[in-house]
Design a protein that fits this description.
Layout lengths: L21 H21 L5 H4 L3 H26 L4 H22 L8 H28 L11 H8 L2
Length: 163
């Protein structure tokens, strides 16, 4: 049954798969490349010059900021991947598992393993997911056929304007 013209249905929150072009190809490669590079950096010992960079406080905050920032970037890129929303949630959960696994494995390569770092990873994933989903919702509204998504049929909105 075809919906009537008065009914307004929200668009799906995954606008990128329908669009051909470079974004369809660049986001998966960028996401995969960053994930591989970040995993490699997390699983190698910290070089001695990096430990002395700017003193212990600066090194601490730089390292913790990198945890939040990189996982936020990976989460944003996850939501830009040309896959369905359900798959994006699965990949987001896998990013969370990646953070836990790399934290566990760091104890075997001469680095500290910490629940607090995993929580920072999770905070970055949450931040990136919120930012990306917010952008997608705004993007979806701008590119919808109606110009914006309405919660009620147009006829009811017209009646309310005359009250």
């Amino acid at each position: 049954m075809k919906p009537s013209a008065d009914e307004v249905h929200p668009l799906p929150i995954y606008p990128l798969p329908e669009r051909p072009g470079w974004r369809r190809y660049i986001f998966p490669w960028l996401w995969g490349g960053l994930l591989i590079a970040w995993t490699w950096l997390l699983l190698m010992p910290i070089p001695e010059p990096a430990r002395r960079l700017g003193g212990p406080d600066f090194t601490f905050w730089l390292g913790k900021g990198l945890h939040v920032g990189m996982y936020a970037v990976l989460a944003i890129l996850t939501w830009m991947l040309p896959i369905r929303e359900v798959a994006r949630w699965v990949v987001t959960a896998l990013l969370l598992a990646h953070g836990g696994l790399t934290e566990f494995l760091q104890q075997f390569v001469g680095r500290g393993s910490s629940w607090a770092d995993w929580c920072r990873d999770a905070a970055g994933i949450a931040l990136g997911t919120i930012l990306a989903r917010g952008w997608l919702m705004v993007h979806r509204r701008r590119h919808s056929p109606q110009g914006s998504i309405q919660s009620k049929p147009a006829q009811e909105n017209d009646n309310a304007a005359h009250l």
